[in-house]
Amino acid sequence: MAEPVVSEVNLIICFASTPNIQKLQTQLRDLKATREGVQLWVVEARNNLRSVPEADTWLIKANNKIAEADTIIESEARVQTGCLNGWCGPRYSLSRKAAIMIPDLVDLHTEGIKYTQLSHSSPPPSIQALPSTGFKGFESRNLIVKQIIDALKDDEINLIGVCGMGGVGKTTMVKQVAKRVEEEKLFNKVAMAVVSQEPDFVQVQSCIAEMLGLQLGMGNTMVRSRLLRYRLLQNDEKILVILDDIWKQFDLEDWGFPSEGGSNKSCKILFTSRNRNLWKRIQNKRYIQLQVLVGDEPWHLFRETVGDCAEDLDLLPLAKQIVNECGGLPLALVTIGRALTNERNQRHWNNALQQLRTPSSESLSSGLLAKVYQALYFSYNFLTVERAKKLFLLCCLFPEGFNIHIEDLVRYGIGLRWFKGIDKVDEVRDRVNVFVDCLKCCYLLLDGDEEEQIKMHDVVRDVAISIVAKDKHGFMTIHGAKSGEWPKKATYELNTSISVMSNEIVEFPGGLRCPKLEFLLIECQNN
Description:
Elements: H1 2-47, H2 53-83, H3 89-116, H4 139-153, E1 159-163, H5 170-184, E2 189-196, H6 201-211, H7 221-232, E3 239-246, E4 267-273, E5 285-289, H8 297-306, H9 316-326, H10 330-339, H11 346-357, H12 370-381, H13 386-394, E6 404-405, H14 406-415, H15 425-441, E7 446-447, E8 453-455, H16 458-470, E9 475-479, E10 497-501, E11 519-523
Parallel strand pairs: 1-4, 1-5, 2-3, 3-4, 9-10, 10-11
Antiparallel strand pairs: 6-8, 7-8
Helix pairs in contact: 1-2, 1-3, 2-3, 4-5, 8-10, 9-11, 12-16, 13-15, 14-15
C-alpha cells in the first residue's frame, strides 16, 4: 500500500518544481537579450578606442551565469522523462538550484540595462553591400585572385597593388577578393574607399573609419590620422584596407594607414592603380598585374552581357567582330554589350562596330564608347611630362597591333626636334626609354613581341586617335587600305603627320600641298 503514496508525493514534488524552471528560462532569455545589447555597446566603444573595464567584468559574470543556467535547464530536460515513471528527486534538486539562481540573473539583467540604454551607432556598412558585376569564373581572373589571396596570407607582405590599364576590371577584382576574404574569415574587418585622381583624404579617412565603426569627427588632421592608425593596429583584430583607384603615391603613414602593418601584422593594405611604379621604397609590398581577358573569355563576357541575340545568324558575325575590336578589355565588352542587350536590329550592331573601327573626337565626350574612352583618356591626361604625351600620340600613327621599335622612336624624336639642347644620340635614347617606361607603367604602352619593341592596345590606340582628332593635331593614317588609290580629301594643308602603310597603294598623288607637315611615314612593300 506504500507505493501509490510515494508516487503521489513524487508527482506533487515534480509539479512543484516546474514554476522555478519556467522562471529561470524567462530570466535567462532576458539576460541573453541584455548581454547582446552590452556586447554591441562594447564593440562600439572598442571601435572608438575607449576602454570599458566595467562592461567587460559584467560580461564575464553574465557569461558564467548564463552557462550555469543553461546547464540546469538542459539537465532538467534530460531527467523530465524519468520523473514520470519514478523518483523525481533530481528534478526537485534542479528546481532548488534554479530558485537560488533566479535572483542572480535578475540582478545581472538590471545592472546590464544601463549599458543597453546608451546610444548605439548604426552597424558599420559591410563590404558585401558594395555592387560588383563579378567575374564569370574565368581562368585568367581566378589565377589573379589566388595570387592576391596568397599575398594577403603572407606575413612578410603588407602592401599589395593590383595594377592594370583603365577598364581592365581592377575594382571588380578587389571587390571579389574582399567578399572571399570575409567568407573565409581571413580578416576580422574589411574596409574600402575610393581615392581617385584628385583625392580628398579626409573623406577617404572617414569612409574607412565608418566601415570600422570608428567616429573620427572633423578635428585636427594629425589627431584623425593617429586615431585611425590606432584603430587599424588594434591587437585583437586583423583588418584589410582597400584603397581603390590610386593615381599617385602619398604618404600612407601621414594619413593613418600603417605601411608596415604593425608588429603583429594586424593590418594590410590592398590598392588598385593604373601605375605600377608606386611606393618603390617600401620593401614589404607586391604588385600584381591584371591583364585583358584572353582566349574565349571576351566572347563569354560579351555573350552573357548582350543576351541570346548575339547567336542570331545575321548578328553572330557582327558580334564576333565587335568582340575582336574590344581587344579583351572588360569595360568595352560590357559597355557595348549592355547597349546592344536584346537588340536584334542589325543597323544598331553595324553602328557599334563602325564606332569601334573609326574613333572620332566625339568619342571622348559622347556616344556609345564615351565611358570607355574617358576611362583611358584620364590616364593620358594625367601624364605630367609633355614629351611623354607626344610620344604616346605618335604611336597611334602605326597600325593596330604593330610592334614599334624603340630605336625608331629615338630617330623620330630627333627629327621632330623634341630634345633641343641635347646633341648626343645616347642621351636622347636614354630620354626616350624613360618616357617609354613611364607610359608602360601607366599601361598606355605594352611590351612588344620582341625586346626593344612596344605596341599599343587596340582600344588605347583608338583613344589616341580620338585625342589627336579632338585637339586638331592633323594626323592622317592610311593602314591596310583595300583600295589602291590615295584617299581623296579637300585639303591636306592642316595635316602635321601622315602615316601610310599599305600594300595596295601603288601610286601617290602629285601636287600635294602640306605646309604644316612635320612627320611622314611611308611603308608600301608593293611600290
